[in-house]
Write a structure and sequence with these properties.
The complex is a heterodimer.
Chain A (H helix, E strand, L loop, with lengths): L13 E3 L5 H9 L4 H4 L1 H6 L9 H16 L5 E8 L9 E11 L2 E10 L2 E12 L2
Antiparallel strand pairs in A: 1-3, 2-5, 3-4, 4-5
Chain B lengths: L14 E4 L2 H10 L5 H4 L1 H6 L12 H13 L11 E10 L8 E14 L2 E11 L5 E12 L2
Antiparallel strand pairs in B: 1-3, 2-5, 3-4, 4-5
Classes of the chains: A alpha+beta, B alpha+beta.
């Protein structure tokens, strides 16, 4: 089931489009009720285009791309990311992942999540335990 | 104005978190997980787990309550209106399963100033009931215009 982890390999892309109520569900699930994610008027009042995605939801998509490629949640040993561009609702998120190194039973994977030309999670590095 | 680094090393009270089956399922659904390990107790048991398995990023749920007191600590001095969550690291020792009780401790790992911005890193360590570390997080905040 697991993808082939060879240096330079591209892992399967993950594509997901957050629906207009996604940030409300994620706020409840995560406990992060910052109004920039759930209140359209508030978000606009602080200069945002509208409600924006939670960065940690976007990071979870990067994590999900890794666990799905690797064949299970226990395979993901570490993940570090940077948040930069703002993620928005109702636009497809695409996670891409490339194997950078395979050593001592661990694969190092570089990944990012983007919406169109905007990278919403960048410089992601995952450590994957291989069987 | 330079950032105040006096809080570096400061620790916050431990926070216990009981991992619940329905909370794991709710979180897993919200992030789009379809793996039955996260959603179906029977599937999880068939795979050798006691109950549904929390997705790795569920660490956000059990660690955030421990790190918030640091982010809002006046001694740390973060201007919340100018703060952005700039980065996040997690390292997992093993997966967490519904029914476990976890204890999480947060401390101020570093405070630095570069280019008029303040960089605040919090180290957050979660242990299981036996005292073994299950997850370490580094929560990274940037404050503009310090």
């Amino acid at each position: 089931m697991a993808a082939d982890y060879e240096t330079g390999a591209e892992l399967p892309e993950l594509k997901v489009t957050p629906d207009r109520f996604l940030t409300v569900r994620y706020a409840g699930a995560s406990g992060d009720f910052n109004p920039i994610h759930i209140d359209e008027e508030f978000a606009k009042s602080v200069g945002l285009p509208g409600r924006i995605l939670h960065g940690l939801w976007s990071m979870a998509q990067v994590a999900r791309a890794q666990t799905e490629a690797a064949g299970g949640p226990e395979k993901l040993k570490a993940l570090s990311v940077q948040f930069r561009g703002m993620g928005v609702l109702e636009q497809e998120v695409v996670v891409t992942s490339t194997v950078k190194a395979v050593e001592d039973g661990t694969a190092t994977v570089a990944a990012e999540a983007r919406q169109g030309e905007t990278r919403i999670v960048r410089n992601a590095v995952a450590q994957i335990a291989l069987d | 104005m330079p950032v105040n680094t006096s809080a570096v090393g400061k620790q916050y009270p431990p926070v216990t978190y009981a991992v619940g089956r329905e909370k794991v399922k709710e979180y897993a659904s919200a992030v789009g997980e379809t793996n039955p390990l996260h959603l179906d107790p029977a599937a999880a048991r068939a795979a050798g787990y006691d109950d549904v398995v929390a997705p790795p990023m569920f660490a956000v749920v059990y660690q955030s309550q421990a790190v918030m007191p640091g982010i809002f600590d006046p001694e740390v001095g973060i201007n919340f209106a100018m703060m952005v969550h700039s980065g996040q690291d997690f390292r997992w020792e093993r997966v967490v399963v519904a029914g476990e009780e976890l204890t999480t401790r947060a401390k101020v790992a570093s405070i630095e100033e570069k280019g008029g911005m303040g960089f605040y890193d919090f180290e957050v360590v979660t242990q299981d009931a036996g005292g073994a570390t299950v997850c370490t997080g580094i929560w990274k905040m940037i404050v503009r215009g310090v």
